[in-house]
Design a protein that fits this description.
mainly alpha
Length: 552
């Protein structure tokens, strides 16, 4: 690590070499344990899976880019750039509970100059899921358009590079500012109000076309086309439109116009980089994200009233977990973010044939999807303890009571989510039939204990330190994330495997008793994990301390 002490010249290259060597050595040392090997396999599997998705998207966009460019319509490339932009920015936020983002604040312990720290921050962002898939998609567009018009290859290359740089900087900027906003209570409340208005505003995104879809007139169609052309003209000044119009201007022999479009695209990237630089500069100067008061305050009274009246360790664990939740904006965001998706897609496509499907199945699908927001709670319920995990080993409290208290909080959180999802579905699509309600309830009686049981096992055997103030996650958590996704997929698949065949054969009434039998089995499994918690923790004590006690 000596190279980190020299901030410029040859020392700059030594810094990068030292970090690369450190990461390589960390990888080699991690392979000495079974968990480290599993983490590497999970990481390769995850990256390979998303790379295949990116290749598929890239091939499709490459074919589309070839077609529109070969037919003298490069301006239509905007229709290809826009999906890349949306995917690049939305997917990383919606799957923030699963993907791994290294917390780079550890580099601030070394005499690293600010440009090096900012470059490290950006380079590490190239390995997240959005950048991986989005980068492959842009390569597909670049290849397709360049093959169709080799004489425009230079312009296409510059446009794709600038558009990619804008997306990388924008993603990192969004994550850094969300971390900042969610770290303090006041800004967290403001951001909550913004989300509320966004949800309510989604109601007004549907054009008047959908309100009168049963009796379309020529005037309405004309209005819709006028609005469409207005949107097309407006998007010409946004990054996807600028990248496409730059290539189109070059195709029409207007190099000055093409150069000006690329200049504006570069200014967008620079603006995103400047906003990111503001956040990184604050962190570089020692800003600590959190709600700790800056000024000294008087000591709290020796005696205070507990938020939850009760005796025993279970009540104490429940109160502690609730306090942790209310003070962590990241956990609140993760639990509430799925509700936005449920709100947007619970009605289906207005005017289409899937409204009946949405009315009937929006509730079970929404309830199943809401489990994703609880992943950090259920499958890593020891991650927030940090160095405090050692107190559990010193306390005479049975570990099954500790896990029981945590599971009670998880169940309460899910019940709140269930109520919110039910209200959203009832408002957006209407409540389903009594049969679907009964099946959903029976499936929940099976799914909740099953999730809690597997969450207890993974929380002990594959725990990772949870950063309560940032979306960035500690290294070594990808295996936990992959297994949690597999478990959630299996739990949902069991419900579908029970109901769908019975519904097809006309015996859907048997789904409820079948799911209740499975619910009894999952409840027994949950009870077994509680009874076995002490033994599992005893066998994993050294690993838990090494993982959770390490410096953040």
């Amino acid at each position: 690590m000596a190279g980190l002490a020299r901030p410029s010249g040859v020392g700059l290259r030594a810094q990068y070499a030292a970090v690369a060597s450190m990461r390589w050595q960390m990888l080699l040392h991690s392979l000495r344990t079974g968990r480290g090997s599993f983490e590497l396999g999970a990481r390769l599997l995850s990256q390979g899976f998303f790379a295949l998705i990116g290749i598929g998207i890239g091939l499709g966009l490459g074919f589309g880019a070839f077609q529109v460019t070969a037919h003298d319509s490069p301006r239509m490339l905007a229709a290809l750039f826009w999906p890349v932009l949306v995917f690049w920015q939305v997917v990383p936020i919606t799957i923030a509970s699963f993907q791994e983002n290294a917390d780079l604040s550890i580099f601030l312990r070394f005499p690293l100059n600010f440009p090096s720290y900012a470059l490290f921050y950006i380079l590490f962002g190239l390995f997240d899921i959005g950048s991986l898939v989005g980068g492959i998609a842009l390569v597909g567009i670049w290849v397709g358009a360049s093959v169709a018009r080799p004489e425009l290859a230079g312009w296409i290359t510059v446009a794709v590079i600038l558009f990619g740089a804008f997306n990388v900087l924008l993603t990192r900027m969004i994550f850094s500012w969300i971390d900042r906003w969610l770290a303090q209570r006041k800004t967290r409340e403001i951001l909550g109000v913004v989300f509320l208005f966004l949800i309510m505003g989604a109601q007004f995104l549907n054009p008047v076309y959908y309100q009168h879809r049963g009796h379309q007139s020529g005037a309405n169609e004309t209005t819709i086309m006028q609005r469409f052309h207005d949107v097309v003209r407006a998007q010409r000044y946004l990054p996807p439109g600028l990248a496409a119009t730059a290539v189109n201007a070059a195709h029409e022999g207007k190099p000055l116009a093409a150069g000006s479009d690329l200049l504006f695209l570069a200014l967008y990237a620079a603006a995103a980089g400047a906003l990111l630089g503001i956040r990184l500069r604050a962190e570089y100067r020692g800003e600590n994200l959190g709600e700790a008061p800056k000024k000294s305050i008087k000591a709290a009274p020796a005696r205070r009233r507990h938020a939850i009246e009760g005796r025993g360790p279970v009540a104490a664990v429940v109160e502690k977990e609730i306090r942790y939740l209310m003070r962590s904006g990241i956990l609140l965001y993760a639990s509430l973010a799925p509700l936005i998706i449920v709100f947007l897609f619970s009605r289906g496509m207005p005017g289409g044939g899937d409204v009946g499907f949405a009315r009937e199945y929006a509730l079970p699908l929404g309830v199943a999807y809401s489990f994703l927001g609880l992943t950090r709670f259920i499958y890593n319920n020891l991650g927030g303890e940090g160095a405090g995990v050692q107190l559990y080993f010193l306390s005479p409290t049975p570990f099954r009571k500790v896990m029981l208290g945590k599971n009670i909080v998880h169940t309460l959180i899910f019940l709140v989510e269930l109520v919110l999802v039910s209200v959203i579905v009832a408002y957006r699509a209407g409540m389903p039939s009594a049969e679907i309600l009964a099946v959903t309830l029976a499936w929940l009686l099976f799914a909740v204990p099953a999730q809690l049981a597997m969450g207890n096992v993974l929380s002990i055997t594959m725990a990772y330190r949870m950063n309560m103030a940032r979306m960035a996650r500690e290294p070594g958590s990808l295996g936990n994330s992959l297994l949690s996704l597999v478990v959630q997929g299996l739990v949902f698949g069991v419900g579908a495997a029970v109901y769908v065949p019975l519904n097809i054969t006309g015996h859907s009434g048997l789904a409820v008793p079948a799911l209740l039998v499975l619910a009894a089995g999952s409840f027994w499994l949950w009870q077994w994990t509680l009874a076995s918690a002490a033994g599992m923790v005893a066998s994993q004590k050294e690993s838990l301390v090494a993982t959770l006690y390490k410096a953040a």
